[in-house]
Amino acid sequence: MQIDHVEILNLSPLGVLVVNAEQRVIWCNSRFISDTNLPREKVEGQLLAAIPLEAVDKKTHLVQQFIESNSPSKKFQHWHSPSNMVENATIHYFALKRDNNENKPRLNIAKLPKRPNWIEFLDYEVSRSRRYDNPLCVLKLHVLLNNKPDGLDESDIKQTIKDTIMDELRWADMIGNTSHGSFLMVLPETPNSVLEKLKNKILKAVEVEVAQLSKSIDCRIVFGSAYWQKHDDSNRLLKRARENLVTALEESLSQN
C-alpha cells in the first residue's frame, strides 16, 4: 500500500485488516493490535481463518474474539469492503464493542438448554462433556471460490452451501457462520471416529448442489475439525479446530 494510505488507516479509531485475494492478512493497523492484544506476527502474513474471531450473528456484523485466558471475551462490530488501495484486496473494519454489563455475574450456561446462538450452545455442550464425558466435535468448512459465472452472486453460492449443510446435519447439531467465509458446526454426541464419514457425506452433497447452480463454478471445500478432550473449554476446542483448518488451507493453497 502507499505510505499515505497506511498513515490514514493507522490513525483510524477502528481496527483494520487488509486481506488479499487468498484471504491472507497483508497489513493491520495499530488499533487492531491494541484492541485484540494479538502479537503482530500472529496477524500479518496469516490467513484470515487463523485469526481467533468468530461471528455471533448470521450476517457476521458482530464477531467475538476467543482468548485462552480468564480475560472476558471481546466483541467487535465488523464490516468489510473492497479496497481501492490494493488490487483484489478487502479491508475489514473492527469496532470494539463496550459491554456495559461486563461487571454483572455471568449466566450459568450449563443451565440454559436453549440455543440463542452457536457460542452459547457450544459452551453448554462443553459443560455437558466435562460433566458426563460426552463426545463432542467441532467441524469447520471453508469455501475456496476460485471462479464463479457472471450473474451469480457469491452470497448465493454460500447460501446454497449452508442450506445443504443444514440438510445433512441432525436436528441436535448447530451451524454458524464465521467472519471469513467459513461455516462452523457444533456436533454433540459425535465421536471423532465418525468425522471423516461426515465430511465425505457433506462434501458430496455440496458438490451436487453447487453443480446444479452452475457447472462452471470452481470451488474447493476445505475442512478443519477438533474433538473434545478432558479439561477442554470452548476456547481450546475452537483453537484446535481453527489450527486444523488453517493447516488444511495452507496445504490446499500451496497446490495452486
Extract low-pLDDT stretches: 102-115
Question: If you average the pLDDT, what whole number results?
Answer: 86
Strand % is 25-35%
Major β-sheet profile = 6 strands, antiparallel
Strand order of the largest sheet: 2-1-6-5-4-3
Order of helices and strands: HEEHEEEEHEHEEHEH
Q: Give the end-to-end Cα distance, rounded to a whole number of Å.
A: 25 Å
Oligomeric description of these chains: single chain
Which structural category do the helix and sheet elements fall into?
alpha+beta
Cα-atom Rg, whole angstroms? 19 Å
Q: How helix-rich are the residues, as a percent range? A: 25-40%
Structural account:
With 256 residues, the chain is α+β, with helices and mostly antiparallel strands. It has 6 helices and 10 strands, in the order H-E-E-H-E-E-E-E-H-E-H-E-E-H-E-H. The chain has a 6-stranded antiparallel β-sheet with strand order 2-1-6-5-4-3. A 4-stranded antiparallel β-sheet has the order 8-9-7-10. A hairpin with a 6-residue loop joins strand 3 and strand 4. The protein is globular and about 50 Å long.
Keywords:
256 residues, alpha+beta, 6-stranded antiparallel beta sheet, 4-stranded antiparallel beta sheet, 26% strand, globular
Compact summary:
The chain has 256 residues and is an alpha+beta fold. Helices cover 33% and strands 26% of the residues. Strand 4 and strand 5 form a beta hairpin.
Give the secondary structure arrangement, pairings included.
Elements: H1 3-10, E1 15-19, E2 25-28, H2 30-36, E3 53-55, E4 62-65, E5 74-82, E6 90-97, H3 118-132, E7 136-147, H4 154-168, E8 174-177, E9 182-188, H5 195-213, E10 218-227, H6 234-254
Antiparallel strand pairs: 1-2, 1-6, 3-4, 4-5, 5-6, 7-9, 7-10, 8-9
Helix pairs in contact: 4-5
